[in-house]
Design goal:
alpha/beta; Rossmann fold; 8-stranded mixed β-sheet; two-stranded antiparallel sheet; 7 helices; 14 strands; 31% helix; globular; disordered N terminus
Length: 307
C-alpha cells in the first residue's frame, strides 16, 4: 500500500468521524485507516453529541429563532441616546485624527477573522451507530453529499446498530444477515473470501480479500464486491448476487459491512491493506474534485495567459 505524504497539498482538509450516535466501536479500531488518511495529509476530527452537525458538515451557523424586541424609548431617553451618539461621533473623529490608519487596521483584523472561518470536512465517516439519525441530520448529510462530500458507512453483523437509519437515504440496505461458506473460508465458516470485483477506484489492484463475519448490502446496482456460488446468506434464500460492499451516489457514498478486516492483525491478510489504502485514496480524492470545481468556477485561469 502507498503511504505517500501529500500534506502540503491537502492543508486544512479534514475528515469527520461520528461519535454522537452511541456508536458501537472503539476509535482505536480505525487506527489503520486513520494512519492512511494522516499519511495523505488529512486531519481527523470527531463529531460529538455537543456539536452541531449542520455547522460541522456545512459550515452553517444556526439562526436565532427569537429576536429581541426593542422597547420604545420615552422622550428623555431619546435625548440621552442622541447626546451619547453625538459624543461618540466626536470621539471617533478625534481618535482618527490622532491615530490615522487605525480604522484600516480594524478592517484588516475583521478580514483576518473572516479568513479564519472553519472549512467544512471533505468526508464524513459513520461506524455502527446505535441511535437513529434525525430528519434534520439526514437532510444535512444529504446536502453534504450533494455538495461533493464523501460519506463512508461501516457496519458489522456482530454489533447492534442502526446504520439503515441513514443508509436508506442513499438506497442502501444493510441486511440483518451474515454470509458464510462451508467449503472455503478463513478458519471459520463465517470468515469468507471475496475474489470477484467490479472495477473502480475502491477495488483497484484487488485479487482476494478476507472479511470476518460480514453481511450483504442490498442496492440498485451499487454492489462492487461479490461472493462466490458457495457463499450463502443466513437470511436471503434467493440466489441473487450478494455483495458486502456497495458504492452509490456517483461514487460519493461507500458502504462496507465489516469492520474487523480494517483492524490489526486482520488488515494484513491477503489484499485487505490494499483495500484500506484504496478507501483512503477515495476519501482523499474529494480534495482533487473540489479543486477542479474551484478552477472551473474561477474565470481567467488559463495557463500562459498574459496580464
Amino acid at each position: 500500500a502507498d503511504f505517500s505524504d501529500n500534506a502540503s497539498d491537502n492543508i486544512s482538509k479534514t475528515v469527520l468521524i461520528d461519535l454522537a450516535h452511541d456508536n458501537n466501536f472503539d476509535v482505536e479500531e480505525l487506527n489503520v485507516l486513520m494512519l492512511q488518511l494522516i499519511s495523505r495529509g488529512l486531519t481527523i476530527n470527531f463529531f460529538s453529541v455537543e456539536d452541531d452537525l449542520e455547522k460541522e458538515l456545512l459550515g452553517k451557523e444556526k439562526e436565532e429563532e427569537e429576536e429581541l424586541e426593542e422597547e420604545p424609548l420615552d422622550e428623555e431617553k431619546e435625548e440621552e441616546v442622541e447626546e451619547g451618539e453625538e459624543f461618540l461621533g466626536e470621539e471617533k473623529e478625534c481618535d482618527e485624527e490622532e491615530h490615522p490608519g487605525k480604522g484600516l487596521l480594524n478592517e484588516e483584523k475583521e478580514g483576518d477573522e473572516e479568513e479564519e472561518e472553519e472549512i467544512p470536512p471533505i468526508a464524513f465517516i459513520i461506524v455502527s451507530p446505535q441511535e437513529k439519525f434525525s430528519h434534520e441530520e439526514k437532510k444535512t448529510i444529504d446536502e453534504f453529499v450533494d455538495n461533493g462530500g464523501k460519506l463512508l458507512l461501516i457496519a458489522d453483523p456482530t454489533r447492534n446498530g442502526n446504520i439503515s437509519s441513514i443508509s436508506l437515504e442513499f438506497g442502501l440496505i444493510f441486511e440483518p444477515d451474515y454470509l458464510y461458506n462451508m467449503k472455503e473460508n478463513e478458519i471459520n465458516y463465517r470468515n469468507i473470501f471475496v475474489t470477484e470485483f467490479k472495477e473502480n477506484e475502491i477495488t483497484k489492484n484487488l485479487e482476494k480479500i478476507a472479511l470476518y463475519v460480514t453481511g450483504s448490502i442490498s442496492s440498485t446496482d451499487g454492489g462492487i464486491a461479490f461472493v462466490d456460488q458457495n457463499t450463502f446468506s443466513s437470511m436471503i434464500e434467493s440466489r441473487k448476487r450478494l455483495s458486502p460492499l456497495a458504492l452509490t451516489q456517483e461514487s460519493k457514498v461507500l458502504a462496507i459491512y465489516d469492520l474487523t478486516f480494517m483492524t490489526e492483525p486482520y488488515n494484513g491478510t491477503l489484499d485487505n491493506n490494499q483495500l484500506i489504502a484504496n478507501i483512503a485514496d477515495w476519501l482523499a480524492s474529494a480534495i482533487e474534485e473540489e479543486e477542479e470545481e474551484e478552477e472551473k468556477e474561477t474565470p481567467g485561469r488559463e495557463q500562459g495567459r498574459s496580464p
